[in-house]
Amino acid sequence: MSAEHASNMSDLPELPASSTEARKQHAEISERIRSYNEAYHVNDDPLVSDATYDALFNRLIELESHYPTLKKNSPTQDVGAAPAEGFAKVKHARPMLSLGNAFSREDIVDFLARIRRFLNLTAHSPVEVVGEPKIDGLSLSLRYENRKLVTAATRGDGSEGEDVTANVAHIDDIPKTLPDDAPDVVEIRGEVYMARSAFQKLNATQAETGGKTFANPRNAAAGSLRQLDPSISAKRPLRFFAYSFGELSESLAQTQWDFLHKVEGWGFVTNPLTRLLHDADDIIAFYDELGTQRPDLDYDIDGIVYKVNDFELQLRLGFVSRSPRWAIAHKFPAEKARTRLNAIEVQVGRTGALTPVARLEPVTVGGVVVSNATLHNRDEIERLGVRVGDMVVIQRAGDVIPQVVEVIRDERPEDTTEYQFPDTCPKCGSHAMREEGEAVTRCTGGLICPAQAVERLKHFVSRNAFDIDGLGAKNVEAFFELGWLKSPGDIFRLESDHGDAIRKLEGWGDKSAAKLFDGVNERRTIGLDRFIYALGIRQIGQATAKLLARHYGSLGEWRSAMVAANEADSEALRELINIDQIGPGVAKDLIEFMAEDHNREVLDDLQDLLTITDVEAPTVSDNPVNGKTVVFTGKLELFSRNEAKVKAESLGAKVAGSVSAKTDYLVAGPGAGSKLKKAEELGVTVLDEQGWLDLIAAE
Ligand code: IVH
User: Are 140 and 242 in contact (CB under 8 A)?
Assistant: First the structure.
C-alpha cells in the first residue's frame, strides 16, 4: 500500500473541529484500518483500494500530529501497516531465499538421504551439517564495499528489500567497517532480533509513556527496524546474529563452520549454540537438547537450521525453486490455541476445488490474531468429526495457514448437528463431484461458475504471475461484478473500455486509476514462464511452468506442441512426457487445457495484447551444451542422475528420458543397454561420464 493523497477520496470525513470529535474519528478510522489490515495481510484479500486505505491512514497520522496521545494503540504504530512514505528499495545482488521445513525425525532422515542420493553417495557416507538455532526475527543483508558498510536491506520479497541502512547504525552487533583482510565486496546475512528481556522492558516503558506495545519480540524487532525515523530505531535494543552471506568478491571459507568463525573474527556475533553434527542421531539429540533449553533462552527460536557444512557440496546441491537443497529448517512444535468454531464456509478455488474454511471466534496464537483456519477437505471434516459450535484446537506454524487440529468433544454444546458437506457448488449450484483417488471435491460448473472465473483472474494477477500493482484480489472481484473483467485480456482493456468509469468509482480518482493503469501497462511485456503459470492450468505450478518455458522457448512453439500432443502416439506427446518431471497426468491437463476452444481464444486475445518474451538463457550461450538435448543412461557413478540433470539444465541443455533423432548427446554409464544401442544406430554422440564432465568443463 503506497502513499496517495486524500484529495480525491469521497468517503473521507471532514477534519474534526474539537478534540472529542478527533478522538471519535480516530477510533472509527482505526477500526476500519484494522479490519483492512487483517484482510490485506492475513487473508491476502484487500477490502478497499490502496488509495482509500492510504487516505484513511494519512488522516490518522494527521489527527495524531494534532493530538499526539491518539498514537497510543493506533494502527499507525503497527508492524505491517505500511508507512505513509516508504523506504527506498534495494535489489539484492543474490536473492534471499527461504528454507524447506522438517517436522520429524523422518523428515531429517529424508533430508540426508536426498542429499546423498543427489550427490551419488552411499547410504552411510558421512554428511557433516552445521546446526544453528533458527532465530525468530527478521533477516537482514549487510553489504560492505571496500570494507565499509554501505547498505542494510530487509529481505522483502527475496529479490528486493527495503533500505534500512540508517536504522542499523546503532546496532552494536553490526560492525560498520571490516578489517583489512576482508574482500572488497562482502554481503553478510543474518537475523535481527530483540532479546526477550529487552522486549519486556520496552513494552513496560511503552505502556508507561503511552506508546504502542508489541505482541512478541519478533514484531517488536520488525517494528523497531522498520521505523522511518532512524532516531526511534536507535533507541530500540536490537541485536544481530550473522549466519550466511550473499555476494562476495572472494571466497571466505570452504565450510559454513569456518565461515562463522571467520566473520566472528571480524566482529560479528554468531550464535554460541551452533554445533557441528554428523548424522541423524546427532541431529535429533541436538534438537531435543535445544528444545529443552528453548524456554530459558533470552531470545525466541522457532526451530533449528541444518546446513551442509562443505561449500563445494552446497554448490553441487544447488536449489529447488526458492530453497536450497543443502539446508532445512527443523521446526519446533507449532503453537496452539482453543477457540469456538462459529461457522464453516466452503470456498471455491480457481480449479473448482471446494475448500471448507473454519470461521472462528478470534484468538491470539503466537502473537497473531486468527479468525479463519482451513479444514482442508471433506475427509478432514469427517476425520475430526467437527461441528459448527464446537470448541476446537487450532494450530499455527510459521507462515502456514492456521488449521483446525482437534475437537474438544467434552465441551460440545447440546444443539449441534453433524456437518453436511455440500453436494453442489455454493457459488453456482452446479453438481460438486469427487473423482476417484482424489481428496478434493470439485464444482463441475467450469466456465459458468463465477467463483472459478474470478479465482482464475485473481491467480492471473497474483504475485508470482502477472503481479499487477494496484490490481489486488478485491479490485478483481469488484471489476468482475461490474462485468468489466470476464477474461484475462479484459485487464489490458480496462483503461480504454472503462477508464472514465473507474475514475468515477467510489474510492477511486484520477490518481489511483492512473496508478492502476500504469501497473497494468508495466506488465504488457512478460516472460513466458510467468505467462504459462498465470494461465492457472491444473497442476502447473511455477516450477513446471518454468520447465515448459525453457523447453519450448517461445509461446508459439509451446502452443503448437500442446495442440500436436493431443494426438496419441505423436512425436509431440512423446517429447512432452519425455521432459523430466512431466508425467502423463500433467501432460493430460496441459493437453486438455489447450484442446478447449475457450482457452485458445484467451491465448489469442492475450497474444494480441501482450509481448511474451522467451525465457532468458540461464547461462552463457557459448557453452557447448546450451540448447542441446542430452540423455543420461546406465549406472552413473561420478554423479547422480538428478545432479547431472540439474547441471545440464543450468547450462541451457534439455534433458530427455529417451533417445530419438533429436538427441545430441547420450551420456552412458556402465551397464547402458537399449538406449546406447539406439544412440549408436542413430549416430548420436555417446560420452562416458568423464567425457561429459570434460565437455561441460570446457565452457
Ligand atoms: S539460512 C538459503 N540460517 O529463517 C538459506 N536462516 O526460513 C537462508 N533464519 O529468512 C537462510 N535463523 O530469516 C538461515 N541460522 C539461520 C537462521 C535463518 C533464522 C530465518 C531467516 C530466513 C528464514 C528461512
Answer: no
Distance 98 CA to ligand 1 centre (A): 7
The answer to whether 430 and 443 are in contact (CB under 8 A) is: yes
pLDDT in tens, 117-166: 999 999 889 999 999 999 999 999 999 999 999 999 999 888 889 999 99
The finding on whether 130 has its CB within 6 A of some atom of ligand 1 is: no
pLDDT single digits (tens) 558-609: 999 999 999 998 989 988 988 877 888 899 999 999 999 989 999 999 999 9
Q: Which atom of ligand 1 is nearest to the CA of 132?
A: 15
- Compute the mean pLDDT over every residue in the chain, rounded to the nearest whole number: 88
| Ligand 1: nearest atom to the Cα of 99 | 7
* 662 flagged as catalytic: no
Find the catalytic residue in 24, 72, 89, 134.
134
- Tell whether the model's pLDDT for residue 40 goes beyond 60: no
Using a 6 Å cutoff on CB, does residue 305 contact ligand 1? yes
Assign residue 158 a region: left if phi > 0, alpha if psi is -120 to 50, beta otherwise?
left
Would you list the DSSP string of 586-620? Answer: HHHHHHHHHH-HHHHHHHHHHHHH-EEEPPPPSS-
| 667 pLDDT higher than 90 | yes
> How far out from the chain centre does Cα 650 lie?
22
Residue of 99, 142, 332 best suited for mutating to test ligand 1, as the one with most atoms within 8 Å of CB: 99
Q: Is the CB of 139 within 6 Å of ligand 1? A: yes
Domains in the chain, please, with CATH? 3-78+334-411 (2.40.50.140), 89-331 (3.30.470.30), 528-613 (1.10.150.20), 629-697 (3.40.50.10190)
Q: How far is CA 615 from CA 98, 322, 471, 479, 512, in A?
A: 23, 18, 25, 31, 32
Question: Does ligand 1 lie within 6 Å of residue 327's CB atom?
Answer: yes
pLDDT digit string, tens, across residues 156-175: 888 889 999 999 999 999 99
Residue 690's contacts (CB-CB under 8 Å, 6 or more residues apart) are 638
Phi-psi category of residue 551: left, alpha or beta, with phi > 0 → left and psi -120 to 50 → alpha: alpha
